[in-house]
Amino acid sequence: MYKFETKNKKPLYVQLYEQIKEDIINNYQLEEKLPSIRKVMTTYNISKNTVEAAYSQLVIEGYIESFPKKGYLVISNEFQNFKTKDLDTKPYKEEEIRYDFFPAKLHKDTFPLKLWKRIYSKALDETIELGMYSDKQGEYSLRVELAKYLNHSRAVNCSAEQIIMTNGFADSLSILAMLFNNKIKNFSIEKPGYHVARKVFLNHNYNIDDIPINKEGIDIEKLQNGFSSLLYVTPSHQYPTGVTMPIANRMKLLTWAENTNSYIIEDDYDTELSYFNKPIPSLQGLDLKERVIYFGTFSKALSPALRVGYLVLPKQLIEKYKQEFIYHACRVCLITQKTLELFMKEGFWEKHLRRVRTINKKKHNLMKNQLEEKLGSTIKIEAQGGGLAILINPKVELNWQKLEKLAQKEKIKLHYTKERTNNNWQALMMGFGSFKEEEIEKAVSAFSKIWFESIN
Amino acid sequence: MYKFETKNKKPLYVQLYEQIKEDIINNYQLEEKLPSIRKVMTTYNISKNTVEAAYSQLVIEGYIESFPKKGYLVISNEFQNFKTKDLDTKPYKEEEIRYDFFPAKLHKDTFPLKLWKRIYSKALDETIELGMYSDKQGEYSLRVELAKYLNHSRAVNCSAEQIIMTNGFADSLSILAMLFNNKIKNFSIEKPGYHVARKVFLNHNYNIDDIPINKEGIDIEKLQNGFSSLLYVTPSHQYPTGVTMPIANRMKLLTWAENTNSYIIEDDYDTELSYFNKPIPSLQGLDLKERVIYFGTFSKALSPALRVGYLVLPKQLIEKYKQEFIYHACRVCLITQKTLELFMKEGFWEKHLRRVRTINKKKHNLMKNQLEEKLGSTIKIEAQGGGLAILINPKVELNWQKLEKLAQKEKIKLHYTKERTNNNWQALMMGFGSFKEEEIEKAVSAFSKIWFESIN
Known about the structure:
The structure is a homodimer of 456-residue chains.
Chain A: H1 12-27, H2 37-44, H3 48-60, E1 64-67, E2 71-74, E3 99-100, H4 113-125, H5 140-154, E4 163-166, H6 169-179, E5 186-191, H7 195-203, E6 207-214, E7 217-218, H8 220-224, E8 230-233, H9 247-260, E9 263-267, E10 292-297, E11 309-312, H10 315-324, H11 334-345, H12 348-375, E12 379-383, E13 389-394, H13 400-409, E14 412-413, E15 428-431, H14 437-453
Parallel strand pairs in A: 3-14, 5-6, 5-8, 8-9, 9-10
Antiparallel strand pairs in A: 1-2, 4-11, 6-7, 10-11, 12-13, 13-15
Helix pairs in contact in A: 1-3, 2-3, 4-11, 5-11, 6-7, 12-14, 13-14
């Protein structure tokens, strides 16, 4: 006899299904007949729907089958063990760190939390269609705001139609890697250069051509002798060396692209965090032949956790994208897009940029002063003036391994360009963005202690 | 003489920079000397910082350079035209449609807007670190909630460590395509099957092996004779035919995977929208040999616009992922993740599922009744009972082209499985999710008119 609990949260048919299943496994032979639906209804005083639902589930799971004139016969009585394992719900053991010099982190106070919450709420109040897939390039009205911004602040020459909103750098790059999949086999990158760009194109089976950089950015002569027709560069603030490519070289680069029918990916990742000069206008804006693909992001100046970046394609490529990426879904949360749109439209983005620049310029200067004061003549500053880190190298003989060992002991987290450049260049990245102003002095003090201990 | 406007919003140094630049282009010869910084300071009574900033910008842009003992000389006087184009800000012309039978859309009222807003706000109030990149697998605490849910509702056997939060189906697939990149060259898929899965693996240069399906899902014999070691299946609700794979075949499939060292991707995309049976437990839960990769999504039952999906990897693959995807950033907005975590933790997800099922079951039944009433014996129902569409085919001779032409004329948007299955199977997808209940009768009426006109 089956028993049913009315207080049980489980629907009646599930209770019935579970008990019959157990019954089949323990007591039934193959091809043995189950009681008819009517019989079960009357025996337990339950509805036809309930019994049918339970039987139907047993049919789907392959225990029973309905045969004409015979009724329901058992076709499998083997127990299917859905073992439920003890879930491991212990939280991560967080590594305890006193000072983390992470080179691409904003202090959490930098995010305009209250404002964002208010605008998010407003965005949700306006009619957002959350029931369906949104525009694969991202919301048109957000792209209009972005095009305006890029035009006046970065001299990027584009309309909303040319923009694709992405989840950030790797997403933007993957789209390109797939777009050029059958046409281009070789991918050129600055050496030293950003390892993620390299990695994504390697993952897509491209051959990689490392082009060395010099004091004016990528070595254009070497490029001209190379074999690639797709080049990744960071002309405004070379990653990681910080070099800015002069305008003469920009023109040469564009001529190279035009003559060789090549495309240039301009990654303008952190020009918004430029502390001493009006940022140099984009390479894309100089391009009259539609050879430059422009990459930007909201990760550096707003938040990397929102996952919003974008790319601007030349017109012929956006057509290709539209034809080939039919299935593509925009990967940015729609509400985030709408919030960002309002944020830009109401002028908060430009205000935010000014605020972030002011805050981080102060931190930059503090870090620089502290490094010069505490480490003095033992260091050479390799890159400064922008972004969220100052890059240094020893001018003395330093035991790098000892430094890292001491850092771990002292719970100081250090970051090296080697890890981010495919081992092609070494410098220490002294990130300042994640610290509060008043923490910087202490952080550098702690660092200088292990630094001097590591000098041979 | 340069002029400065104090009411001008532009900083003084930018005004100076712009005027000197114009001056250089119009009046200077190459190697001509600029006035010294001190001279400019005294002439215009402006600070040293201002002049230095303007000159430094001109240096960066490659117009001038500082030479020892000579001062600043012009090294380029060519005008760099940053033309700003008229931005195209006209909104999209929306295609005017009376009835859209889109097969994967929820009505916008289905989204729990007020609740989401409240929880989002709560999530933001708790300490969220928006200044940095978040966990590349997604937030641990969200994955704990998800593991619990998958365990008890889908009998998925996993812990939080095995889950990767993604932006949805294509993102999940791309991760796998890259993970298997050098080990596996062939990818098997159901025929007919979901075209996006095919497309993503094609984009990653895999060979595709189409395995026909029969009444019990994928043809296991054909699979055993194939050459692939990576298989994509939709065992609980085959896309697009709706077939459920019986348990006996599931066991055979697992045996095949075990014997051939293959992996099975189980895409459990819409089992949550199952209207008449308790959904059959996942294939993953039957797998004792770690051969099944489980795919799920929040797109079908919550919102495709939030962009949240996930995959569950067997332990040996999650280790491989951790080693190889060092640079990978989680592509889901952190606030969305935190909101979803609270949404699940506080029990709203299960409540929401019950509500969505109830609403859409009603719409499903209305659509089915209307189709039977209005189209009667002229149609065969190919698939029903789950998801957001009923699939039909004509039992009479139908002029498909005429139907499509009439549909366009009447502003009815029809959707065909051919478009979504690489042309491998034809049926009409009568989506009901996007309609309000009271619209369904009118929509089917309008449709039946053009249907009968298209019968030969």
